[in-house]
Every structure is written in structure tokens, then in C-alpha cells.
């Protein structure tokens, strides 16, 4: 006989345990195991009033935010709805069935207030990294760095072109991203800011274009990862350009050394980090092997001699050309630029190799970078087997960016302004580290992963 479902009848007494309804192999169980917010409340204590009505627990809001970034729930309004109906989410946030879920507006007030003032997101990120180190997922021998472009929440149509006069009006009445930008502009007084394309809604964003696509406003998220297990050791927001991304890497390396007492033996990166100044900083100041392709424009493609055809005599500070003549620094050049070398016009005019050396000039000139010795170190490293292995390991940071955009749904920022971009990047990196630990170390999970956790 076909059964019939009866209507819902409320029971007078009901025994229900969330713990019994969460699968043992659920991802949130692993994340809960490695998320420790013990020091979080203590750091935020001074930002709460000792009297008055109790506020929402800051640990609850952090758990909900991490939950949203772990599962790609980008809207805080939707996040509150999901926590309300999802048993696993309630269990992770330590909410019982009849406990109310905070309103979505609470997150904005705390993020722009006490969370930002207390550097709460940075504290949570560093706490997770320390747990990764304690679990043996960080070796500290080799780091990799890279940057990825994340679209800003700014329309292409709402922009002003280079050189256009902008009337921002009363700064006190402007939106928060505009106020932050104007404050930073007053502090730096950078004349270049007045000549670039700006967004009227998020002026700190960079106007850029991916190959083969239309231009848009964006930020760069910069990762510094440990090559042992792909743990993100630091993250930094920056403008979308090579100089800003290289500077972000310097900041992250210094901060990791200061915070975690970690300094790598080698740094792996692409050509964006192969500038002379960057290589000089790595080799001469930090004593880190640069496993980075050298950004070099000294070689020629027209069939004439490149700089590699000239031998540098360090003892006498001169170059030896293929014809056996010397290029020296003159006293005039030395006052202006001591790294500019010239051959004698008499030697070049009578030289049989002139057409292959300097066919369009009277004599050959060579400019030597003050960091040329560091560039030579990087060139030598590119010929080793260790460098080939480093190129393969660099894919780990690229996979993290793919995971960030495809799985965590963070191909576009939801909040505006440079400070909000920093917060979003920190929370996303925290979520990726927690997922990585849960996947690799939690019970019943495989140790090796073919895709990012």
C-alpha cells in the first residue's frame, strides 16, 4: 500500500544535536580544527566599550566571513541567509538552532571600524600561517612570488581621461573610497596621479587591459608562498604595474622575515621581478638566490654585437671589445654617470668589425648597471638544474590564483577602495590556507592533491 506523508507536527520536546548531522569528512570540520581565534578577542578588547549592551561576538563575524570566502559566497546578505538555513554553517559558526544570525549591515560597520583599526584580518591571517608552520607545511627554503589582476568594482564608463580636470567637491561629503584616495594623494603628492585615467567611484584602482581584451579598472593581489606545500606566507594589494608589484614583493619578504623569522635561500619569480634594482636588492642586501629570468635589453637583434660579446675587466673597470680594444669611462662621463663606457673614435673608425659593432655611430658605447654583478649572478643561476626545478615549482602560485578566481569566485572585488582591497585579499588568502590544511591534514583526506585545496 502506498504510504502517505503526514503534515508537520510540532513536538513538545525535541532533542537535536548539530554535531550528529555534520558528516565526519566535511571540509568545515577540518577548517574548524585548524582555526584558532584564542588571541583574537584579546587584541580587540580595547576597541569595545566596557559598559553598555553586549555586542555581537567578533569571533562569530570572523567565522562567518571566513566561511563566505571559503565557499565563494561573495554577498554578506546571502551569507547571512545561508548560515540561517545550513546546518553545517551553523555548526561552524557555533550557533544553535534557535540562535539568531547577525544582520548583514553589522559586517560593514565592524570592517570599516574596529576590525580595520585593530588590523584584525592581518592578525587572523598570521595566526593561520603560524598554525601551518606548526603543522610542518612550511619549510622556508624556497619562496615564490607572483601577482594577479583582480577587477575592481568600478564601471568603465565612470572614468576621466588623462589630464582632465576633476572636481571632487567637498571631501567630507564624498564616498569613502574617494576620501581615502584624496587623503593618500595629499600625503604622497605624486604628480603622476593627475595624468592617469581615474575612476570616479574607485580612484585608487588602476586602468589596465589584459591581452586581447578591453581595458578595465583593477588591483593586483600579490602572493608570497612557500614552495613546500604552497602555503601563502603573505599577501599584499598593489597597483597594476611592474614597479608596484616588485615593491610589494619586497614588503612581503621583509614582513615575513620580521613576523615569522623566515628568510628563503631562493626566490622564484617571472621576468617582472628580474629588473636590475630588484636583483640587486635580493643578492646584495637580502642574500637570496634569484631564480628569476633577467629583464635584459642589452642584446641586439639586428646582427650587431650585443653587450655579452664584450668582456668586463672588473679590476681595471673597463670593457674589452671583440677586436681587442678597451672601452673606458671618461672624466666627463664619470661626473654624470660613472657606469657609461665609451670606445675611442680612432679605434672604432679603423676597426674592421665596425659594421658589426656600431655601424650608425662614431664609436661604441656601453651602459653598465650598478647592479650588474647581481644580474650576472641571476644569469648564472638560469643555467643550473635547480633553476629548471624552480620553474616547475612556480606553477604552485599560479594554481592558487586560478583557485582564487574559479573556486572562491573572486575574479572581481565586491568592495571599493585600496583598504577594502587589502581586506578582501587577506580574507581570501586566509581561506585558501585553511582549505589547504584541511585537505592535506584532516582525517580521511588524501595527503597529495593534484589541484589546489
TrEMBL record:
Transposase InsH N-terminal domain sequence ranges: 17-111
InterPro entries attached to this UniProt entry: Tnp_DDE_dom, Transposase_InsH_N
The Transposase DDE domain, residue ranges: 320-438
Name of this chain's protein: Transposase
The species this protein was found in: Methylomonas methanica
